[in-house]
């Protein structure tokens, strides 16, 4: 995620691209692999994309 983007794997195993500008209510730089998030699935010309990414409080 050093480059301003990352990927989220959903419960079905599909990976969704997301850009730092899609993150809501959390600081992008503080996101870590394995954290639970919620997002709005979207389609783009390049494949599955995650919009409105939100960190799920544990």
Quick synopsis:
The chain is built from no helices and five strands.
* Straight-line distance between termini: 22 Å
- Secondary structure class reads mainly beta
Give the CATH superfamily: Nucleic acid-binding proteins
CATH class: Mainly Beta
Strand percentage: over 45%
Low-confidence stretches: none
**Judging from the principal axes of the Cα atoms, what is the shape?**
globular
Secondary structure: number of strands: 5
Query: Cα-atom Rg, whole angstroms?
Result: 11 Å
Task: Explain the overall architecture.
There is one protein chain. This protein has 58 residues and is mostly beta strands. The chain has a single domain (5-55), classed as OB fold (Dihydrolipoamide Acetyltransferase, E2P) (Beta Barrel). The chain is built from no helices and five strands. Strands 3-5-4 form a three-stranded mixed beta sheet, with no helix packed on it. The chain is globular.
Topology at a glance:
Blueprint: E1 5-9, E2 15-19, E3 23-24, E4 37-44, E5 47-55
Parallel strand pairs: 3-5
Antiparallel strand pairs: 1-2, 4-5
Looking at this protein, list some descriptive labels.
single chain, 58 residues, mainly beta, OB fold (Dihydrolipoamide Acetyltransferase, E2P), three-stranded mixed sheet, two-stranded antiparallel sheet, 5 strands, 0% helix
